[in-house]
Structures are given as structure tokens and as C-alpha cells.
Amino acid sequence: MAPNNIVVLGAGVSGLTTAYLLSKDASNSITVVSKHMPGDYDIEYCSPWAGANYFPFGKGGTSAAKWEKATWPVLKEITENHPEAGIHFRDALVYNRKKDQSASLFASELARKDPWFKDVVPNFRELPSSELSPEIDNASRFTSVCINTTIYLPWLVGQCRKNGVIFKRASIKHIASAATLHHSGQKAGLVVNCTGLSSKKLGGVLDDKLYPIRGQIVVVRNDPGPMLATSGTDDGEDEVLYIMTRAAGGGTILGGSYQKNQWDPLPDPNLAVRIMKRAIAAHPGLVKEGEGIEGLDIVRHGVGLRPYREGGPRIERERVEGVDVVHNYGHGGFGYQASFGCAGSAVKLVNEVLGTGRAKL
Q: Where D-dopa is bound, by residue (predicted)?
């Protein structure tokens, strides 16, 4: 039987995870085609800049929550059994101030009391009010994971290659042309579009519901211990507070910002100062007593553009100029923590198109 020739377009966490799941079926012959690959740092390529961790954003009962719920057990299994993947378990603290709650806040679901994921993550508990400062209305603590993206993305590449996936660098202008780039030299029967924000300008897609949400971070060598996030800050609705230490020496991420439709690739030095000051105020143990931001040992400053899509990620099938396409893009700031759930949904659509009826996680 002839193999199912498939091109996966994009090598961020969504593209790599989708290719990995598809490669578990030996009847699939897969080529990953991408302008950017793990190891690159480019403003067009969001995945390397992510924290990344498991802090659920999806509102209960939504597709986003379903995808995040489906992803947790896979990340847990990888963390337990594949230390080479660059993920570790971390204690996590989330603080909520009611004055922050609005639809524009990235952590509104994460920080609310009695969230849906309390029955998903281990060791979830609400902190008693006696342990909270006056400005905090409620808080929770649970076991999460933090991902070293510089290790995890290449690990996904390795898993794909072990299963026979071929990787090619290319820039394309139209989604249909990707079908001609399968490594066999034959036209692929299907293209999976995981191009993130690039789908806004990609011919045959041109998704005007996509826009960037700019995130700025500071990476430091200091280790504060538990991960932390708050529902907002006093510095404006588009500035946020989160702290997480990546596995295997990946440094501690101090964030950040949530700036909608902002394309600037350069770090704002004033924002960087506010990020560092907020982090120290929330986690004084980051530095020695009395040191302030001068006590932070900075590795680098970074900016990433989260590929946000109005109405949520696009995971659907269509036919474009005679080419079958399955889309999996537009995950905003929750690409890693929903990666296996979203990729699983995309794989089901691929199998529908190919008529196999098989989806494997």
C-alpha cells in the first residue's frame, strides 16, 4: 500500500507535536517544512521565546479547556519518563486580585477560585486567607511543569526523526504550494498548516482574525523556587506578572507583557525594569536582601509574538486549490499547554481526510 504523503507546515510546538503524533502511524510519510527550525531565534518564530509551563487559560467547558486537559497527562508522562525532553515538575502559586478581573486579562481563568483544572493537576489546594496579604482575594497552589524550550523543541524533532520524519527548510507564499515539497518528490495528499501568526499573510489562508500579542521577558540565572503568576498588575492591563524556572539550567523567566496587536520586536528597557521590579516584589528571594534589580544576574531580554486568533485556535479542514488542508494554528499564549490536545484534534481531521478513521495519542 502506498504511504500517506503528508506535509506539516511549521516547526513550532504545534507543528512538531502534530508531526510527532502523525509519525506514530507507520502508514504516514511526513515532511516538516518550515522557514524557522528549533535553534533559531526570530521574531516570526514564537515557540523558542515561550516560558513555557502548564498554567491553564481556557474557560471551563470550552474547547481550549478540553485541549489543555488532554495535554496534561502527556506532559506528565514525558516529565516522568523522558528527562532528556527538558521538562521538570515545579510547585506553582497563583494569586488573584478581584480588581484585576476583566475579559482582557490573560490569567482571568487561571486565577479564579475553584478552577476546572483543580481535578487535573496534582496537589491542588486553595490557600487560606490567613496566608494571604490584604490585596490578594484568593490564591491556589499546585504541582505544574516548566519546559526548557531549547531542549524540548529539539527533543520533539528527535522523536519525529526516529519515526522517519524528514525536515526541510523553505519559505512559501501559498499554502497549496507546500504539497509539492514532500521529500518523496511526489505531491503530498494533505498539508497540515501550523504556521501560527504567519497564517495571517499566507496565500490561500489570509486569516484576518489573527494578530500578535506581544510578550516581553527577562531571563535571569536567579532561581526563586516555585513558579508564580498573578491576575494582573498595577502597571496597566497589558502588563502581567509571571515567574518560572526552566528545567536543566534553562534560566528563570521573568514576565511580562500582554500587548495586543503590537508587533515591536525590540525589548522596551522601561518595561524590562518594571518586569524585574514586579518579580522581586512578588518573590523577594530572587535576590539578596536590599539588592533590588541590581541583584538579578541577567542572561538576556526577549520578545515573542503570541499568535492569537479571535474566536480561538483554528483546527479545521478545508480544500484549497485542489489541496486538502488541516489547520492547527492561532493558540495565543497557550500553545505548549494545549499542544497534545490540539494536535490530537488535528490528527483526527487528517485521518478523516485520508479515510483511515484512526487517531493516535
A: 333
Task: Give the number of other Cβ atoms within 10 Å of residue 98's Cβ.
Answer: 13
Instruction: Give residue 16's pLDDT.
Output: 98
Helix (H, G, I), strand (E, B) or coil at 31: strand
For residue 198, CA distances in Å to 9, 102, 141, 157, 195 come to 11, 29, 36, 21, 5
Domain 4-354: which topology? D-Amino Acid Oxidase; Chain A, domain 2 (3.30.9)
Provide the pLDDT confidence category of residue 99 given band limits of 50, 70 and 90. confident
Show binding-site residues for FAD: 195
DSSP label at residue 54: -
> For 288-343, what is each residue's pLDDT tens digit?
998 999 999 999 999 999 999 999 999 999 999 999 999 999 999 999 999 999 99
Q: What is the pLDDT of residues 183-194, one digit of tens each?
A: 999 999 999 999
Which letter does DSSP use for residue 225 in this model?
S
| Three cell numbers, residue 276 | 524585574
Known binding-site residue numbers for D-dopa: 333
Helix (H) or strand (E) holding 144: strand 138-147
Tracing cell 490569567 back to the chain, one arrives at 107
201 Rama class: left (phi>0) / alpha (psi -120 to 50) / beta: alpha
Q: Domain extents for the chain?
A: 4-354
CA–CA gap between residue 23 and residue 157 (Å, rounded): 11
Residue 11 pLDDT > 70: yes
**Cell digits for 177?**
504550494
Q: Which residues are annotated as a binding site?
A: 195, 333
Could you give the CA distance from residue 16 to residue 14 in angstroms, rounded to a whole number? 6
Mean of the pLDDT values across residues 96-118?
76
Instruction: Tell me how far CA of residue 282 lies from CA of 125, 139, 237, 276, in angstroms.
Output: 20, 13, 18, 10
> pTM surpassing 0.90?
yes
CA nearest to 326, candidates 25, 22, 71: 22
Q: Which three three-digit cell numbers place residue 287?
A: 535576590
Q: How far is CA 165 from the centre of its chain?
A: 22
